[in-house]
Design brief:
Layout lengths: L4 E6 L3 H12 L3 E7 L3 H11 L2 E3 L2 H6 L5 E4 L6 H10 L4 E4 L6 H13 L4 E4 L6 H11 L6 E9 L6 H6 L3 H17 L5 E7 L4 H5 L5 E7 L5 E7 L7 E8 L3 E4 L25 H4 L1 H17 L7 H20 L10
Parallel strand pairs: 1-2, 1-4, 2-3, 4-5, 5-6, 7-10
Antiparallel strand pairs: 7-11, 8-9, 9-10, 11-12
Length: 337
């Protein structure tokens, strides 16, 4: 019989609206509380997804019905909530990134060492079925020793400029997903990165000193080369592809569409519908699968597969990429606490 965990969902913004329905859909999770320091926001979210609205964090963490917390709040609040939830002995699922600062990430990791509760970081793309199949193919030796690993990750349109200003920069905000995913697939972390960026779509992004178009190359200890290209704009939808090339062959993931039918007519041949529009549609299943992994880790007493250390490493690499793009030189990421 599935053990049910009562969940306190922290936050009521965009990612909380992703996790609310996924918690409700999981047979082993129960949405017990929705927390926001503004009660009116908590009440609105609770009206949509259920759970009891609460605005007192101490009361949430002391609530006997709360077995674990899902942190889906703004990034700059993650560390504070991790420290308090860990001190209360609550297992934690936290949206990525842990923070935009390595110093604050180290604070969170110290709290998790002092209060060792189950902790999982929400790098959801690991839990996409296509990505997981490609990782399994690489790790099982299907392509032989890995030579090249490539990722295409292009968004349909630039985000609002207020989001960009608070994002920590394109590498920390977006490329970090690809960094974590490709390191997980390869089973190693880079010894050197070289990145370049430009701004071709939204001049406001450039005025903030950020990029909307980047390319990154990572050199792995094995000698494998990893390439990531990112774009804040893409006219044909949310372009998400992977390719692993080894001595024995190659495996790829393809883009997703709502309609996979191929059409031929008097105006076009092999015509197909546009791609999924954004990450909320393309990676919908991955969020459920990630929560399923969290439930299994807590109820079975095992280490979650996406850890705080993974989050620290991905941030260190992303910061090295930002430095490389800014200075025009190759950079060695600095790991460790």
């Amino acid at each position: 019989m599935t053990q049910t965990l009562g969940i306190a969902l922290m936050g009521t913004g965009r990612m909380a609206h992703v996790y609310g329905p996924k918690i409700n859909a999981h047979p082993g999770l129960r949405l017990e509380v929705i927390y926001n320091p503004r009660m009116s926001s908590a009440q609105k979210a609770a009206a949509l997804y259920g759970g009891r609205p609460m605005d007192d964090l101490d009361a949430v963490l002391a609530d006997p019905g709360v077995d674990a917390v899902v942190i889906a709040t703004p990034t700059d609040t993650h560390v504070d909530y991790i420290e308090q939830a860990a001190a209360a002995g609550k297992p934690i699922y936290c949206e990525k990134p842990l923070d935009q600062s390595l110093e604050r990430v180290d604070r969170a990791m110290q709290a998790l060492q002092t209060h060792p509760v189950p902790f999982m970081l929400g790098f959801n793309r690991r839990f996409d079925p296509d990505n997981a199949m490609l990782q399994q193919a690489v790790r099982s030796g299907e392509v032989g020793p890995l030579n090249m690993l490539m990722s295409w990750s292009r968004e349909p349109s630039p985000p609002p400029i207020d989001y960009v200003r608070a994002s920590g920069g394109y590498f920390v905000d977006a490329t970090i997903h690809d960094i974590d995913l490709l390191c997980w697939i390869a089973g190693e972390r880079p010894v050197q990165v070289y990145a370049a960026g430009s701004c071709k779509f939204d001049p406001q992004i450039g005025a903030e000193g950020d990029f909307d178009l980047t390319m990154t190359t990572m050199t792995m200890p094995s000698g494998a080369l990893v390439h990531i290209n990112n774009s804040r704009a893409c006219s044909y939808g949310f372009d998400q592809r992977l390719e692993a090339f080894g001595e024995k062959g190659m495996v790829q993931t393809r883009n997703h569409r709502d309609d996979t039918l191929v059409r031929w007519d008097g105006t076009a041949t092999e015509a197909r519908k546009p791609l999924k529009h954004f990450f909320l549609e393309r990676y919908d299943q991955s969020f459920y699968n990630a929560l399923d992994e969290f439930h299994a880790a807590v109820t079975e007493g095992r280490e979650p597969s996406s850890t705080a250390e993974d989050g620290r490493a991905a941030l260190a690499i992303a910061l090295a990429c930002a430095q490389s793009a800014r200075d025009g030189v190759a950079v060695q990421p600095i790991y460790g606490g």
